[in-house]
Amino acid sequence: SVGGGRPAAVLAPLADTLASFDLQAARRLVFAQVLVGAQEDPAGTELGVLISQRNAAAVDAARQAIQQGQTKLAILYGALHTADLGLQLQNTLGLQPTQREWQTVWRVPLPAAAAPELNALPALLRPGNALRFMALPLLLLVGAADYVSTLDQIGEAVTAYGASSDGYISIFLTVFLYVIRHGFVYYATSTWALDWNGEMFNSSTALE
């Protein structure tokens, strides 16, 4: 998306539910974010090719049904198929979208909606706010501590082994493990905690 990723809209409500010890709502929010994250554009990937092929088969079946005189059709498909299927229906059959209707599967009431009186509290005393403000500094603190620890391990390896093959192997393993740890964190953050596809949720009182 233009402008890069931004913090996912689900993070603040998730902090609220965790601070309120509403684990059921937190699990629902995590599950919803997983579903939304899975909808990242798969074009150019093996999954994207598979989706396109399945959509082509569905469009071909719809074309045959129209040729047989059917005037009302329904296509049941998963969320990942939406964008490509819509394009194929327009390009192949000349169909155009005329209406969009959202169906609520389930709702996740947020603490602020469930207890409006919480809004009267100072910002720092509201459930979840302290957790929000502490999350990023805590993550940076853990990353910095790991970085310093990695440098210490490298120094110990140089002191213990010097310029020997064992020393080089020890340093390599230390750096490799550091990259793996932080690579996993950054990848998880970029794919789960950042929104690359625009607004995920639009309701300010509850997530649907």
Automatic annotation (TrEMBL):
Annotated protein name in UniProt: Uncharacterized protein
Superkingdom, natural source: Eukaryota
Alphabetical list of PANTHER family matching this protein: THERMOSOME SUBUNIT GAMMA (PTHR35757)
Organism: Pyramimonas obovata
